[in-house]
Specification:
CATH class of one domain: Alpha Beta
CATH architecture of one domain: 3-Layer(aba) Sandwich
Oligomer: single chain
Shape: globular
Number of strands: 7
Helix content: 25-40%
Number of helices: 9
Structural class: alpha+beta
CATH superfamily of one domain: SMI1/KNR4-like
Distance between the termini: 128 Å
Largest sheet: 4 strands, antiparallel
Radius of gyration: 34 Å
Order of helices and strands: HHEHHEEEEEEHHHHH
Amino acid sequence: MEEIKENLAFKGVAERLTFGITRLLENLPGVCDVRFAESEPAEKRSLLSWEQKNTCILPEDMRNFYLTTDGFTLTWSVKLDDECVPLGCMMVNSVSRLCPLLQPVSLFALPNAPSLADLDWEESDAGSGAGEAPTAPHFDSRSRIFQLDSCGGNGKVCLVYKNCNPGVVAQQSEIWFLDRSLSWHFLSANFSSYYRLMITHLGLPEWQYVFTPCGASPQAKQWASLYQPLIFRRELSLTDPAGDSHLNKLDPAKAFRGKAKVPIPKKKPPTQCSIGSVTKSQGGAGRHTGAKR
């Protein structure tokens, strides 16, 4: 009985953590193997140790999240040709895996070797005003960046502290997406908003690219139009009002409709009058030839 109560209690916590998304996924057509990884709550001392080590204060909502579960992983697959193919993945790294994006320079590294800091401009950007886009993070000491999700190799979702000074504890943080071209894209001002975005987009491949000018790949858009049609159409209308020319706009009713047979016109046989006229003309020509001889 105690084990049953514990399982029910954990299911209640899992439902609150996932906002009931597991049941929604299980009811979607073709979805299979929905898995939610169980994680114990993080200890307060591990959170304090992380803050002291990185000279940063975790946001209050993120601290409460880690005190509930030390990381988050939910995956789901689709059934293609009687085989489960992994598709969706929602992930938030645990405290131990919340590592800096820019690792310290090794003593064995070449002195003139290029680094990500070389991508930044030398002058510091001014703070963004009202109505302006947020200032992008820097790869040098002005920003402290930590990985929340590796996005399956399609980029990185990062917890970013900007306007940092050496030896000063950073407190204000934001959530940014670093794409494969090493360009920054703003996602949300706090962890709670980002968590809702991740759940809403069902962890579909490349969903973070919705917030980039280039957008997701055509294959990712096809998956989004299948499993997330309402949100996909709204985002598509905001980014491209004329529609997306990269998607195949296929109408099954027209594509698989049987083709009607087009009657082939038959050649009409020559009429009797035409035969007579031809014979008459040939005969006249023969008589004319004989008369000449």
